[in-house]
Queue: 3 jobs
Job 1
Amino acid sequence: MKNPIPALREFVEWLLLPALAAVLPWRVYFRVLRRISAWNWLLREEVARAVRGHQAFCGRPPDARWRQRHRLTILVDRADAWLSATRGDGWLERYLERDGDWPTGAFLAVTFHYGNGLWAMRDLRRRGQPVSMVSIRFSAASFAGRRIPYFAARQRFREVARAGGAPVIFTGGSVPVIRTTLATGRCVLGLIDVPPGQAGGSLPVRFLDRDMLLPSGMLRIAAEAGIPVAGFTLDFDWNSGIRRLRIRTVPSAAIGEQAAFLAAMLDRALTDGSPAWQLWSCAPEFLAPSAEAA
């Protein structure tokens, strides 16, 4: 007989808690999440992986407050698809603060696995700028038979397409689709902090006082198309749950300089809110070979 605990945990962490966002007022729901984010048994595996990555990268384990905030980031991220599906644009007026402006026309929006970026797509769509997100392709096999996480992923990507007002672009033959999308006047959103082994070309940058590598493919496409690039981060206030969207126009320059600009954005974000980075589990993979050998 199979152990029912893992299935129950998946139901609670991937479905029950996220779905509550659809029925509770945001302020009430966020207070609930903030309280339960102190429970060490919740998201145990996810937080343990992040702690190991943080310790390997920084040489020390994070403290209990860091772990709680990292757990809260994941909880909010899983809830956002449900929240976005059940809230109108007025929600953004009440709960999202914007610093900076989006470029006009077609452009490449670049962000990171930092905070919770879904509401940036909603913000663009309500301004009449449809945006397609670029994502790795996944299937049921990707989840090794875990049906609830697979269902949650499918539900999220349906909402991503609805929120952006344009289809998701999946990797594997995505380059011509990205070029066509930009040529037709729509925006494309890509996450640049992908471990180099999971991307094509990469560029050396400096952040967190280390020599690191960031993928360069999206920046090359934007340069070839002659369209602007905007970097953004979207996180939330740890106490109030207010979303904070920061938009910065990336200078028109060589892509190496653009990558350095974006790395500096991520560096500042991690200095201000380290627990909000969702890729601590694989942080050592970003190190450039020279840094690994040092």
Job 2
Amino acid sequence: MKTQKFLAGIGLLSIFTVLVLTISSFTTAEKTDFITKKSSRDGITVYSYGEYIIVKSDNSVSVSR
């Protein structure tokens, strides 16, 4: 009896796993950009975010393409 319950549990877990993998294969993932530090010198730090460049100084922040 315990073996049958154990095998039934494994079967249900397998079906659930296949279902989740099937659903996730149809969803499209959007590309996520991360802010990366490029350089830092004399109080000025340059970051990159996708196609944007971010320049940060002690008193200001500038964003450009």
Job 3
Amino acid sequence: MKKKALLIISIIAVCLLAASCNKDRTCRCSVRNSSVVRIIEIDGGTCEDLRVFRYHDDLDTLHVDSLLCTDHTFLIDSIYKTEE
């Protein structure tokens, strides 16, 4: 009886862990030395893994910026609701 209970608890724990790892996240990222905050949606991993932002401008020049990202909500989020 104890083995069955332990097995069921283990299966539930693994399922919860797997479900939490695949959760979509809303990351708030800032380019170093800038006050602009970018909202980036990711479908796996953590926001802290986002380190580089690459983009092309109107002249098709590639820019690479270093990012600082977090998944913590900001006070401004209470004013501007994002769909999640």
